[in-house]
Design goal:
The protein is α+β, with helices and mostly antiparallel strands. The protein is about 35% helix and about 20% strand. The longest helix has about 35 residues.
Length: about 1150
């Protein structure tokens, strides 16, 4: 492989669940005594070294008999004490529920990492797990699919689903197992250190007296010799790798083992006989050089068997000795007792070529699968160099393998670049803290546990240990900022001013120190453990210590970027132009890149009235990137694109734009929704592709502006031969789409869990360990939250044996394309964010929105949620006409923001639209805007409108409420007067009087005219007076009614209310309380004077009022009675007498002239 052709690209995904509620810890039973000091030491180590989530062994098992869930990722964690299992299906049937739960089985004794086997029963939709631990206990765990859907399914206990068996062969160290295979649900094979193996056949008779497993020894040494050598040392004939197959024959079962003596042995499991043995490379070996060819027992990935033809299979073996060599064998069998093994290429040495470079690469794993009978086979290789790894692929037909081996290898591109934050400059609006937090907490980049471990290490380095309790209370980002801020201080410079530059540099240095620690702790997570391949969909996976990488096909633009020297569509023009643009901006400083991006933002988001040439001039002048371009940089562009950029044409740019607008329209209907795991793969791939395409698009804009002004003669200008204006505008359209995609893919939301995923913990004998606090929410990206439900795969027939890696890329490229099938409409995304109470994020999408009426209306809703009522009102008014004009079938889509009632008010005329706006402001208690929009709505209500009275009444009611809340009593008064509903009018009138009286707006109330309602006002006030007992400290209803009646010349009515107040003052005992300097000046005497003055204002013949005496009971019959109220007339003369009597009484009291008993009368002198 002289040149590397990158045809695939990996998408790395960490395994941190979106919610802690998805993790279920299950404690397993044991037949042996469990070590008492195991768990504390394990948890302490995990906290100190961040190894709690890193696996020592991991693989993916694909069920053979059932379709969903199909793929199960199992991992051995925490010092081989935990077996973690989760599903890794990308898609699911139409109505199936997600299987999001992660089951962590905690074993009392350590697991033997190579003794974990999975299989699925053919007669049950289930998964069987078999595990051997260091106490030689065989665990059999039977899990239904609901175990991965409902916490309650496992929280209630495993019961008979978990069985523990102590094999007799392993007791007292008689035999030593070191590898376990599952032939099927009823038969296991345990490979032994002495070169033999034990068959475990399940007892299916359901007889409790019998052992659950029948043990059968099979050994090449014979029965007697197999009893010897029980020390556990690996025999030279022990198997380093093994695989079982039936070659498609009924009742056949063969075991192929690659032994430590470099030989391939074939066992007949039915009778324990060895059917054949040969050298791994079919070569003759000198018996004296046995040690030279001996294999290492840790090299377990040495043999693969593939094929579907009955009695015929392809066997591929790998010998790691020397440079490493593959051998391809054809296996044939006509019966259950023989296997014919033919070397397909005896004269060819199929030695794999490691990745380019000076590093030493080791082949760690490989996979072979049959694509189809006509399309041959596909082979994948996994190379490792410490923590780094590379993947290669080869597609071949059997007869042309030697030739394909030399020149058809394709590689997987692994992005090993370490992202870092841009350096903050003095003109940068955001400081280093914001940039580093965005980098560290970018979705899917670092797990929380790794960041916490880095913070612990950093705090230890600076001598400031932190506590987890305080960290939980303030949040992880805040804890990091606090730790870094403690190392930097803002000091004064030599001139006496604050040295902000020194503070910025110090903070930047500390952030980089913390980031280096984080990278070092994160590096072991990326160690590759295994290569997995799903034959049905052709999906390859790289399983890492704490992550998983999906291998997908490169998109068109990725093939161009990652293979810059390879021709594209028959020429190198497109790769040359793309590579030149990327190389051109690499010389820019961080500050220059920031300036260029800030200049292009208004170009993307704002409508411009400038000509194309003026826009180019504006970008060139404002960005000023020409200041950092050297003669050498300009010469490189000229060398690549020709003198006067002769290579650049409009057609060439059209081809480049076509690669950035790579849409996809499946010829098959979409029937398979993506699982949450599948959506994460898509989102992670979108993050990578959008970033790559954004850089290409940005670089093409910059180099286009550069070429436009780089000429010696005016006739050589680029715009004379290239439509630079059209190209520039198209690039801005693509850049805007990519900017939106990047924002959606990098913004995280916290949403509530689906009801099916919430915990239903059962107290009592639950095996679930109380290790984690169950969360009722999950964290998603805004892209997944808004369009995740739209992501589907075509029907099953479209997903061939090689289709899924290409389909994933098609979906991702289509999402990034401006004309893609998935429309990313910002206004609907904003609606979804508003439903989730994230108006702050919705406001960030405002620049992406169009100027159509609904988008404008949504902007009003955004600012309304942000409490910016003035801006919201401006948007609502701007959208009024478009949102009120009736439409035949308006689109009713708002991501749940608008309900049916609210939709009925839109596109139904301006009055109803403004009524809706009034209701929105009323919900926010912005009553001043309620009154403004309610008055606007009333202006457009006319008699010809349907339900005009109903609409008018509703708006008037809201107008009255707003006016009342803002103390606009004249407006409320005017609104009450025009109400036609008498009941509503009376209710509002009562509320208005109540509010004005409570707030002591008495004079305003009295001055209001209330035409036609004066009697009602009088009645309401009179009722309040009747109900008032405390006339001293309460609301002065008597005085208000008195003023009301005086204002309207109702003197006798005013006198009556004064007389009522005198009586209540006397009942309260306030008649003797002196209120002034004069001892005769009391509250009662003052009321008498006012009463006399009022009655003096009327005709003497009319100077009287009626008074109701206290009710007294009257018997009407032997068993009934009623209270009779007597009325009497009080004249002005009577009142004067009473007034004089009151004065005499007060004077007598002041002179101590009063009776000694209640019956004595005072002697008035």
């Amino acid at each position: 492989m002289a040149t590397v052709w990158y045809y695939y690209k990996e998408t790395r995904l960490n395994l941190e669940p979106s919610s802690g509620s998805y993790v279920v810890d299950i404690e397993l039973p044991t037949l042996a005594q469990a070590p008492s000091s195991r768990k504390p030491s394990r948890s302490a180590k995990a906290a100190a070294t961040n190894e709690v989530s890193r696996a020592t062994t991991s693989a993916i098992y694909y069920r053979k008999h059932h379709s969903f869930p199909k793929g199960f990722l199992w991992r051995v964690l925490e010092d081989d004490a935990v077996l973690s299992i989760r599903t890794v299906d990308i898609c699911k049937p139409k109505k199936a529920s997600d299987t999001n739960l992660i089951l962590n089985f905690h074993f009392p004794h350590s697991i033997r990492p190579t003794c974990v086997a999975l299989c699925d029963p053919s007669d049950h939709d289930a998964l069987s797990i078999f595990v051997l631990d260091t106490a030689n206990q065989l665990y059999s765990i039977f899990l239904r699919p609901d175990s991965f859907r409902k916490r309650s399914f496992v929280e209630t206990g495993l019961g008979d689903s978990c069985k523990v068996f102590q094999p007799h062969a392993f007791r007292n160290g008689f035999k030593h197992p070191y590898r376990l295979l599952a032939v099927n649900n009823d038969q296991l094979v345990a490979l032994l250190s002495d070169g033999g193996h034990i068959l475990f056949d399940k007892n299916t008779s359901h007889n409790a007296s019998q052992l659950p497993w029948k043990e059968t020894f099979q050994n090449a040494k014979g029965w007697f010799r197999s009893l010897l050598g029980a020390r556990g040392d690996l025999d030279i004939k022990a198997a380093a790798a093994a695989v079982q197959t039936d070659l498609g024959l009924d009742d056949a079962s063969f075991l192929f083992t690659v032994c430590l003596d470099h030989r391939l042995r074939i066992w007949n499991l039915n009778n324990g006989q060895i059917l054949g043995a040969s050298d791994l490379l079919n070569a003759a070996r000198d018996p004296q050089e046995t040690g030279k060819w001996q294999l290492d027992a840790s090299q377990t990935n040495l043999v693969r068997i593939v094929g579907n033809t009955e009695g015929k299979r392809l066997c591929v073996t790998y010998s790691p000795v020397g440079p490493g060599e593959f051998k391809f064998w054809m296996l044939k069998s006509d019966d259950v007792n023989s296997v014919q093994v033919d070397d397909l290429f005896p004269n060819d040495h199929l030695i794999p070529t490691p990745p380019l470079g000076s590093d030493v690469w080791t082949l760690a794993d490989f996979s072979v699968t049959e694509r189809s009978t006509a399309r041959g086979f596909r082979m994948w290789l996994l190379w490792k160099n410490n923590m780094a790894y590379r993947v290669q692929e080869l597609s071949f037909l059997t007869e042309e393998l030697p030739n394909a081996w030399k020149n058809r290898w394709r590689s997987v591109f692994s992005d090993t670049a370490i992202p870092t934050a841009q350096v903050s400059g003095p003109s940068d609006p955001s400081g280093p803290t914001e940039k580093w937090l965005q980098l560290i907490f970018f979705p899917g980049r670092f797990p929380r546990a790794t960041v916490e471990a880095a913070l612990n290490a950093y705090e230890g380095a600076i001598g400031k240990p932190g506590s987890s309790s305080s960290r939980n209370s303030q949040g992880l980002p805040e804890a990091i900022c606090s730790a870094i801020a403690s190392t930097s201080s803002l000091n004064k410079s030599s001139s006496g001013e604050m040295d902000h530059e020194q503070f910025r540099n110090s903070s930047e240095m500390q952030w980089r120190k913390f980031y280096r620690i984080l990278l070092e702790l994160d590096k072991p997570r990326g160690e590759a453990l295994a290569l997995s391949y799903e034959p049905e969909t052709g999906m390859p996976w790289i399983i890492c210590a704490d992550g998983i990488s999906a291998i997908r096909e490169c998109s068109t633009v990725e093939k161009i970027v990652h293979n810059p020297h390879a021709p594209f569509e028959g020429s190198n023009e497109v790769p040359t132009l793309v590579a030149t643009g990327i190389n051109f901006i690499e010389c820019f400083s961080d500050s220059m890149l920031q300036i260029c991006q800030s200049v292009l933002r208004p170009e993307m988001f704002e409508e411009s009235s400038k000509s194309d040439q003026e826009r180019f001039q504006f970008v060139s002048d404002k960005a000023g990137f020409w200041r950092q371009i050297t003669e050498e940089d300009a010469a490189q562009v000229t060398d690549a694109l020709g003198q006067n950029f002769n290579l650049v044409t409009t057609r060439l740019y059209d081809r480049v734009l076509g690669t950035l607008n790579d849409t996809w329209d499946s010829q098959y209907p979409s029937e398979l929704p993506l699982t949450e795991f599948g959506r994460k793969i898509i989102i992670r791939a979108v993050q990578d592709l959008a970033e790559l395409q954004w850089n290409i698009c940005f670089s093409q804009i910059i180099i286009l502006v550069h070429m436009e002004f780089e000429f010696d003669r005016p006739e050589d200008a680029l715009h004379n031969k290239v439509e630079v204006g059209v190209i520039y505008r198209n690039l801005l359209i693509i850049l805007k789409r990519l900017e939106l995609v990047r924002w959606l893919a990098s913004t995280q939301l916290t949403t509530s869990l689906p009801k099916a995923d919430r915990s239903n913990s059962v107290s009592g004998g639950s095996p679930v360990g109380p290790r984690r606090q169950v969360e009722e929410h999950r964290v998603l990206t805004a892209l997944e939250a808004n369009i995740g439900h739209l992501l589907e795969l075509p029907e099953n027939r479209a997903i061939s044996s090689t289709a899924l890696p290409r389909l994933i890329t098609n979906i991702v490229a289509d999402l990034c394309a401006p004309t893609g099938s998935v429309q990313l409409q910002p206004q609907y995304i904003q609606c979804g964010l508003l439903v989730r109470d994230r108006a702050d994020l919705a406001a960030e999408l405002t620049p992406f929105c169009e100027q159509d009426p609904f988008s404008t209306y949504v902007q009003g809703r955004v600012y309304l949620a942000l409490k910016d009522f003035t801006t919201a009102a401006a948007y609502f008014k701007k959208a009024a006409y478009g949102m009120s004009v009736p439409q035949a079938n308006p689109e009713r889509h708002s991501s749940g923001l608008l309900d049916e009632t609210e939709w009925n008010l839109l596109f139904a005329g301006i009055p109803r639209y403004y009524a809706h706006i009034v209701a929105l402001f009323e919900q926010q208690k912005a009553y001043s805007f309620v009154t403004d929009f309610a008055r606007l709505a009333l202006q457009f209500v006319h008699g010809n409108m349907e339900d005009a009275d109903k609409v008018r009444t509703e708006i008037q009611c809201r107008l009255f409420s707003g006016a009342l809340a803002t103390s606009q009593f004249e407006l409320a008064h005017a609104t009450v007067l025009v109400m036609k509903d008498q009941a509503l009018q009376h209710s509002c009138l009562r509320a208005l009087i109540q509010r004005m009286c409570d707030n002591l707006h008495n004079s305003e109330l009295v001055n209001l005219t209330f035409p036609g309602l004066q009697g009602a006002v009088d009645d309401i006030l009179a009722q309040h007076c009747t109900n008032t007992v405390d006339v001293v400290t309460g609301v002065p209803y008597h005085q208000i009614l008195y003023a009301w009646r005086i204002k309207r010349n109702d003197y006798r009515g005013a006198a009556a209310i004064l007389l009522d107040r005198i009586q209540k003052l006397r009942q309260l005992g306030e008649g003797d309380q002196v209120t002034g300097d004069d001892i005769l000046d009391t509250a009662v005497t003052r009321q008498y004077l006012m009463l006399i003055n009022v009655l003096s204002c009327v005709d003497p013949k009319q100077a009287w009022v009626t008074v109701e005496e206290p009710a007294r009971p009257i018997r009407l019959g032997p068993s009934t009675s009623e209270h009779l109220t007597k009325r009497r007339v009080v004249t002005l003369a009577d009142i004067r007498k009473e007034y004089q009597a009151e004065l005499d009484r007060i004077a007598a009291i002041q002179n101590d002239q009063f009776g000694f008993t209640a019956d004595d009368e005072m002697e008035i002198l």
